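Subject: two folds for Thursday's group meeting

Dear M.,

Sorry for the delay on this. The cluster queue was jammed most of the week, so I only got both jobs back this morning. I'm pasting them in the order they finished. Each block is the input sequence followed by the predicted structure tokens. Could you check whether the formatting survives your parser before we put anything on slides? The first protein is the one we discussed after the seminar.
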Amino acid sequence: MKVVGVGCAPGLLTDEARRVLAGARRVYGSRRAIGIAREALPRSCEVHEIRDYSSLDLPDDAILLSTGDPMLAGLGYLSGEVIPGISSLQIAAARLHLPLSRIAVVVAHGRGHEKGMQETVEEIRRGKIVFLLADPKFDCAELWGRLSGISPPLQVALCENLGYPDERIVTVPVANPPAITSDLYSLVIGHF
């Protein structure tokens, strides 16, 4: 099996991903990942949408699509060759002109909301900028409250729909947080 990162939005497939997809016989992935990769797939390729990732049982010759990069909260933990993709972290860092070496990644997407809040506060106190992958159920108001007492005051960049035509990045003080308008978002928090 191969796990192929398709990038975080259309138009971000790498040449390596395109080469692997050009020879695909069977592809599996979320609706979003399939949509991103569709134009690179051969017409004869079987395409299977996955809705439940809890018990994957795929054939050895399967290509599993992962949005963004499989190693950033993706499917890179599965066995098989991993083909990297362009992640939302890379896009956010580029748009905000932030070196990746200054950033700590915190994942609170689909699990571990409390742990994600604790890790965010800890990393900021260590002097890092946090890239937080969250989901629509994540309680941002609670996070803003926990961060409000940190000095000097922090900034937050809300990054929505990165790489899509309706991409939106808003940078404001954490004391005056932006309204989240999309389910596809990440946060960059710290001194930057």
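Second protein, same layout:
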Amino acid sequence: MRLTILHFNDLHGRLEQLPRLATLIQRERAEALTRGRTVLVLDGGDSSDRAVWESDITQGRANFAVLEAMGVQATVVGNGEALQWGRTALQKLVASVHFPVLAANLVDLADPSRLAVPGLQASCVIQADGLKIGIIGVTAVYTNGYDRFGYISTDPLPALQREVAALKTRGAHFILLLSHLGYATSEEKKTWLDPNAFTDDEAATACPEIGAIVGGHSHVLLEAPVMIGDIPIVQVGEYGRYLGRLDLDVNPDTGRVVRHEYCLLPTEDVLPASTISATEEFVREEASHLLDIRLGAASVDLPHFFNQPSPFANRVADALRAICQAELGILFSGFVYQGLKAGPITRRDLYEAIPGSSHVTAAQVSGAQIRRMVERMLASPYRTESFNPKRNSPPLGLPACSTNVQLVYDLPSPFGSPTGVLREGAGGEGESSALNDILIDGHPLDSSRRYRLASTYYTLNPVTDEPEYDYIGLEPGQVIENVRVEEVLWEIVEDWIKTAGSIA
């Protein structure tokens, strides 16, 4: 068996790179076929990203539509597909293409014997020249995050062992692992959030029946395959900057690689494939139409500020209070990026004002816990510094509150507020903030009373062991409610605006 694998991974929504990748794929496929080689085109996961509007507004389907047009023959579910939009979106994403979408270890939380969504596959068999190529997909384990959607990523090893046996039963002559587990050296793994994560090299060691591993997730650019015995591991970095070409000569009787060659093909300066460019343009146009939908109107300008209380962010807090049927809403104003002008509000206006993937939560908490949360919000270094500099995120800013709430606090610099009171001139340069009072419907916050609070997962969550996320100080037995878990902040505010019709 003479096999050529063309592969890429971790596009993260970079649609503009796909026509260039397509040019290379067309050229390399044609050249390999003239040499009598079987060709596979594979994607290593994370083709989509909420930070890219075409991905976000279509919940990944824009990217998948172009992948199909390019002739991709299989992909593996990455955390970019599974962690962002939820079960309904993942099911639609899987159904939107004809090529196999794989993830053997992404399973239903209530019934782990079933995969996460209908249509998802653990493995597949591609027949070529009378031979059967088995492909297994596995994805990275996320202990938190997936379960809120009703599925979970389990230990990849048992899933791998099961699918290897199943593919052998189906007569596979060669078994390939399409992985979104990641690869790193032992030293590099020490810096990972989970240094014990199961990675591609461990998969090769534990399952020697695998013939080759095409990887993703860790964004590593491997200029030459990492060899575990005779098993090559390949990965091409990120964002479609390279196409990988792995030529394998395989003994079909043993399924072992007897010879391999590898090269990286940069997309820089490559002319885009015209048909894929046209498809990309069409997909963008269709995605754009989704943003032109009119939601309602603003009767007055609703400006937004990071360094002083924000009228629009306070209205977002009102939306959370209403949607969650809560007594008050509090969130960081930095989850809002810009305000709204008086006049019609389109989905584009709202999407640009509240980008990102913040989820909405609610809970019955004590007044003391609310005070603790606000104090920590005021004391956070991210109040004035970027929370995510790599993505040019603004500071988280001041707390935004529903209009029935008034905060009284001191800051090192004087501001001014229509919904709160800040002590003019209080504090000197470098001094910390101080919360003096919280009023709800004109009454002082009762520390012992329980209130239903609406917020975002960043500040209202069950985390108690990570200072960065430990705001509310959850008590034993308290439950955090994930409100409309498959929607994020802007989508929930969208429904509030639609219901209200006009906001002021």
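Two things I noticed about the second structure. The radius of gyration is 26 Å. Residues 414-431 have pLDDT under 50 and may be disordered.

Cheers,
T.
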